[in-house]
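Late entry, evening session. Most of the bench is empty. Finally got around to the prediction I had been postponing all week. Sequence below, unchanged from the version circulated by S.P.
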Amino acid sequence: MSERVIEPLQAQGKTVVIPPKRNRKNPRDYDLDLYKARHLIENFFAKLKQYQAMPTAGYAYATRYDKRAINFLGAIYLAASVIWLN
């Protein structure tokens, strides 16, 4: 995985957030704080996907009430507020 994914990203100046496998002989460094933040964001999007009317992960469908950007953003705000309040 290192040759295919991580090394090209590091060559572009990206920060590694993917933790190494525990059984690696030479574990690589990664930013633990960024990994925790990434985990929170992924969990938020997983909760947001429970609201089926919203295409949250780039799905190419749109219902008649979320074709306009302002309506879609309003639905995202509403769902995020419900998630935050729970």
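Two things to note before I forget:
Helices lie at 2-11, 32-48, 69-85.
The first helix runs from residue 2 to 11.
Will write this up properly tomorrow.
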